[in-house]
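Q: Sequence in, structure out?
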Amino acid sequence: MQQRYRAKWIVPIEGLPQENGVLVVEQGRIADIRKSHGLWPACDLGDVVILPGLVNAHVHLDLPGSLLASARAGGFVSWLRAVIAYRRASSQQQTESVIRQGIAESLRYGVTCLGDISADGTSARLLAAVGMKSLVFQEVLGLTRERTRETARAARWRLQNCTWNDALRGALGPHAPYSTARVLYRWAGAFAARHAIPLATHVAETLEELQLLRSRTGPLRELLEELGIWRPQALCRTIPEVLQCMSTAPRVIAVHANYCDEKTLAAAVQLFAHRPGGIVFCPRTHAAFGHEPYPVGLYRSAGIRLALGTDSRASSPDLDLLGEVRFLYKTCPTLDPRELLKMATLAGAQILGMERRAGSLRVGKDADFIAVPLQNEAAGEDPCRHVLTSCAAPRWVFLAGRAAVVEDRLASWITL
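A: Exactly. Output:
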């Protein structure tokens, strides 16, 4: 049976915006996008812009907002101490509660597909129950021989013992160059190649990270010494070396990449020229830590795919991906609104490898879409600019053609 939804605008991302359009859904998939002539009965969503469901290409669902003050007050290493202390003190029940809240919040903000970094694999089961399209990156980290073996063994077990499918996929997430040994990066690349799964890592995130790799000094060394895990010989020496260690993986995702010199850019261009993937930028987390201006133009000019993520509630005000796009548009108003929305939809799906089912409104894809109210008359007749210059949250969120959120409330069939 068909369902038809009429809107003032439909922005398919792949294709031009359609004014006064009708989105046709059949068996949970997009069947057509038509001009409304009043000839077909349709559910009229009113003065809204229909967009594809948003794709949050990088999130930590298990980190709570209570850690945000540390990010704003003491800088990155102070915040990292707070995160470590939280993880050590939190119970499994607390972790599950935070993840459930994160999933619900993501849905209310219109996210229908995401890439979650999971410290213990818990999010996979909870995401499967909701039906969101997800990549769950099993995090691995460690500098000592014992820790690297332990974390690799645990990640391997979780990947082999979870029920994965086309909508819920497993992946590996080597944490960061300051916490992950060279041998562990190489193991992750080899494991990913054998099992045809993606890799994601935080990389070139802070100046402290670059200092540690370059000279084995600085605040991150002090933190590692405090934790009793300082092993300088285990670390990579440069960001290009990190990327090279992962180059055997079929898909690589570089998260943050806030700092980029010529050698790093050349290594990134070479890496992404031979495999899918790209870079994920988290604008509000970037601002929270006071980083230098982000090299958006540099990456775009180099032909590197760029998508957006929220990071976590521990480093950003919330999991509002539209908030990330709107923040970026305010700071970079010369960027094309349609391209910015693509970074929050199709580009994210392409980076995660979910583009066959998510990221755009195209016939045959899953009917995951959102409806955002029109608010800003000054935006003129550009629906993309309307979305980016308003502060409206999605009024409706649909998963495979079913209403999952209506007026900020989760539908009764969503079980969390």
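The radius of gyration is 21 Å.
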